[in-house]
Amino acid sequence: MNVVWRVGVAALLDAAYLASYWWVMDLPWLSYGLLLGWLVGAVAARQWWLKSIQAPWQGVLLALSLVLPCLSWTMSRQAAPAGLSGPRHGVGQRVAMAFLLCLVLLASGSGLAERRVLGPAMAPVETKAVEALNRSLVLAAASYGSARLIDRGIALVSEAELTLPVIGGVAVKPGQFFKPLQDMAERYSDVMVVAMASIGIQRVLIELGHNASIAVLGSTVALILLISLMLPSVAWRLGRLARGALVLLVVARLMVPLAVTGVAVISDAVLEPRRIVAQQQLDTATAELQEADVEALEAEDSGLFDWMRELRDETTAMALDVRGFSDDMVDRFVQLLVVYLLETVLLPLGLLAALWWVVRTFTMPPMANHSSIERHR
After folding, report:
1. What is the pLDDT, as a whole number, of residue 32?
2. pTM of the full structure
3. Residue 65 DSSP symbol
4. Cβ density class 103-116: b for 16+ within 10 Å, e for less
């Protein structure tokens, strides 16, 4: 494939790329092409920066890498590689790169990059992520309310006395077998508070990423790189700082919504059936315990007394039935704890740990490379 044909195809692609800026608000799917164009332009700019620019038109293509990304990338592959001593960044090359960074700063600060590129591209993912978080918040709040109602009901049940005439009219409290269930309900409600706080934090992160990540972090990256062009003596340190800000930008704007959506998909496929079964049984127990109130405790033939007698007619087996009911409910609480901890705490924390590792990987290059750079200078 000759160079003229490649240049022609690249020019046509760039024309479609520029036209997409006009039509993207009516056709949001064009934002994916714009995002791809930004990535191609970034790769082209890096290739130009790593090579020795020998002609003015090469500097122009470097400066316009985000305006004509395909043409810039095509011609950067044809440029002569740098010598053994590495590229020597002349004044023209630095001016071209500074112009490109000013374009990035303008696009980020003005909101163009968010409104025309990332906003439409991330809208479907963000919508699904927010819907998943809202649903999880409603379910966690309902589970918290059930746990508190069960705790209240057990507090009343545990004080109910039942006289067993077959053993001499001894008064017993079968509700004492509910004490382990009451302890579990209290701990479960505490975990639900943590889960709701985690969901709220994820929602705030998504909103911050949507509203401020490009304008703040994108502008910060461009500004730091501009300063590094003017201060070559600290360019390595500033470049390291810019890489860290860029990774934070990717995490805040892209990876958090994608991670929330991924957790929702995993939850629907694996955890949701277990949660539904356990929650239904928990709601049934809540409804039964709500029948116990202070007035019912005073009536021997109604309310809580009848509910206890219905567990088993034989008084010798009543305590075993109450204890079995309590053990079953503890098991349901444990299943719900596993589901909500995985959905709202463990998986997000695992993601944050992985992202922190990525941040350290990008912002902490090997010391050997740093030493070689310093020796080269």
Report:
1. 94
2. 0.72
3. T
4. bbbebbbeeebbeb
Amino acid 371: pLDDT: 43
Sign of the alpha-carbon torsion through 240, 241, 246, 251: positive
pLDDT at 294: 42
Q: Identify the pLDDT of residue 37.
A: 94
The predicted structure's pLDDT at residue 352:
66
| Helix 69-76 × helix 30-49 angle, to 10° | 30
Element holding 170 (H helix, E strand)? strand 170-172
Partnered with residue 172 across adjacent β-strands are 162
Distance CA 49, CA 53 (A): 8
Name the CA dihedral angle for 63, 64, 69, 75, rounded to a multiple of 10 degrees: -60
Cα→Cα distances 18→23, 30, 74, Å? 10, 11, 17
Identify the pLDDT of residue 175: 56
Selection from 32, 116, 5, 15 nearest residue 69 by Cα: 15
φ, ψ for residue 346, nearest 5 deg: -70, -50
Q: How far is 365 from 354, CA to CA, in rounded Å? A: 17
Token pair 């036209």 is at which residue?
19
Residues of the chain with pLDDT under 50: 84-85, 165-170, 293-298, 300-302, 311-316, 366-377
Place of tokens 């009219």: 169
Residue written as token pair 């949001």:
28
Closest CA to 118 of 28, 20, 219: 28
Q: Which residue has the tokens 């990304």?
A: 69
Q: What is the pLDDT of residue 367?
A: 43
- Which residues fall within 8 angstroms of residue 17, CB to CB, at 6 or more apart? 33, 34, 37, 69, 70
- E strands in 2-57: none
